[in-house]
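The data layer described in this paper is built around a simple, fixed record for each protein. Such a record has a labelled line for the sequence and another for the backbone structure tokens. For reference, a complete record is included directly beneath this paragraph.
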Amino acid sequence: MTAADDVDAAAAPHACVTRAVDVPKPWGHEAVFADGEHGYVGKLITVRAGEALSLQLHAEKDETLVVVSGRARLDEGPAADRLTSHLLRPGDVVHLPATVLHRVTALSDLLFAEASTAATGWREDVVRFADRYGRAGTTHP
């Protein structure tokens, strides 16, 4: 191996091993395993049975969800008075384009994965219309 090989090896892409960041939520918690640094956000989201995320939309963020375990109800649509409900089971995938109003309610203990776009300000890109936990009208996590 030559010195040039050492330089090439140092510049070569390599794996980065870290730990997911656990973010407590009033309905459960999120394990954020990709925080937008590479152009996308990845989360494992745990919701306790009977709890619900906010009725919300994102101005720019595009999300895809997959149910890993448990059952949920997804309410989605163009407005709060025009929501459609879907029963979600393990393996079901949901794509939520930006501006689609939506809420996930856990019918049993629920685990789902979320992959989303990571535009600047993705953490605050939420408009809450209703929230059981006093966060309606806020972007607070």
Q: What stands out?
A: Helices lie at 3-11. The chain has one domain: 20-130.
